[in-house]
Design a protein that fits this description.
The chain is of the alpha+beta class and about 375 residues long. The protein has nine helices and 20 strands.
């Protein structure tokens, strides 16, 4: 299919007073042939603008976009051999499903037998065969989105672009269509770039995930690599639901090893003191005496199972309990620290009661407070 390469891509819009508003800044990214790459980030981070630049719907301010080595900056959108699926289905209400699927091919002067073949194939692939004679108003939200997907599929483009296509659907239907889109990509063996603000959707779909913030790329990696080894504080807090817990403090060298120490309450000499895991201590020994931010995922905060774990525990107040069925999220407060623990099953924590929790320091992450970057 196609390899898409973006080099130092920037987009500056003109603000209401003529000032420049930078939506995308120096983005360099390569999407390999047949790869499913997901661009994810909060609203306004530049992910949709990046997609529109690739599609040719926005003019590039600086940088280059190439497909299979050909620079396409000045190539009109209709000549880029790209199909885009939008958040808005944008179906023609006066046309049947068949006519909606065939419309783009008719505009491109395809022969009628080829149109028939492509429409029937796409309809079969998407489970739309029984719906071909219906009008959009007679379709469910999921069926309408499938028609929008089908309209892109019949063109057999080199690159598929998806701009938050599932955000208008309810949660169960989003989950179902995520599975279908993932299976579709494997079946078509085509290059896909998918934009979403939903980090769970990004983790479920992408071969790789590209996280954006304020127009810049923060990290590009496989989903679990991003989860296990976030590059900075933003990625650590954004990826995961809920995100990573953060504790400010210092790495201290004691006679029996390295510790993380953080203040328990303002103006108090008391500290949260956690011994670093042996392997972690070897990696971060050179940072002794430095101020750091400790990061721990909610699932790495546990109820201690044995006595003698005082170096790794904290007694905290239960502020909120969120049962989710298979697990329970417990919001805790200990001194100045507020954090979330994820416990399996239906936890028996008591609201506003005290709970002793342990910290799995073998899973600890450390970040530089000044730059936000992860210590390696």
């Amino acid at each position: 299919m196609a390899r898409v390469a973006i080099e130092k891509l920037s987009k500056i819009f003109k603000g209401p007073k003529g000032q420049g508003v930078q939506a995308v800044k120096d983005v360099t990214l390569t999407v390999e042939d047949k790869e499913f790459l997901v661009l994810v980030g909060p609203s306004g981070c530049g992910k949709s603008t990046t997609l529109r630049l690739i599609a040719g719907l926005e003019e590039v301010t600086q940088g280059t976009i190439t497909i299979d080595g050909r620079v396409i900056n000045q190539v009109p959108p209709q000549e880029r051999d790209i199909a885009m699926v939008f958040q808005n289905y944008a179906l023609y209400p006066h046309m049947t499903v068949y006519e909606n699927l065939a419309f783009g091919l008719k505009l491109r002067k395809f022969a009628r037998p080829e149109i028939e073949k492509r429409v029937r194939e796409a309809a079969e692939m998407l489970g739309l065969s029984p719906c071909l004679a219906r009008y959009p108003k007679a379709l469910s939200g999921g069926e309408r989105q499938r028609v929008a997907l089908g309209r892109a599929i019949v063109r057999k483009p080199r690159v598929f672009l998806f701009d938050e296509p599932l955000s208008n659907l309810d949660a169960p239907l989003r989950a179902q269509l995520r599975v279908e889109i993932s299976a579709l990509q494997k079946r078509l063996e085509t290059t896909m770039i998918y934009v979403t603000h939903d980090q769970a959707e990004a983790m479920a779909l992408g071969n790789r995930v590209a996280i954006m913030k304020d127009g810049t790329l923060q990290q590009v990696a496989a989903p679990m690599e991003v989860y296990d080894r976030p590059a900075n504080l933003f990625v650590a807090g954004f990826i995961g639901s809920p995100g990573m817990n953060f504790f400010e403090g210092t790495i201290l060298h004691k006679e029996d090893g390295l510790y993380f120490a953080g203040p328990m309450r303002s103006g108090s000499p008391g500290e949260l003191r956690l011994r670093l895991h042996e392997e972690t201590a070897q990696r971060f020994g050179s940072h002794a005496g430095r101020n750091v931010i400790l990061g721990l995922r909610p699932e790495h905060i546990l109820v201690p199972r044995r006595q003698g774990e005082q170096d790794q525990t904290l007694t905290a107040t239960v502020e909120l309990i969120e049962p989710t069925g298979a697990e329970t999220l417990v919001h805790l407060a200990g001194g100045t620290h507020r954090f979330v623990a994820r416990f399996p099953g239906r936890d028996t924590a008591e609201l506003h009661g005290k709970l002793s929790v342990g910290f799995d320091m073998s899973k600890a992450h450390f970040f530089d407070p000044a730059t936000g970057l992860a210590f390696s």
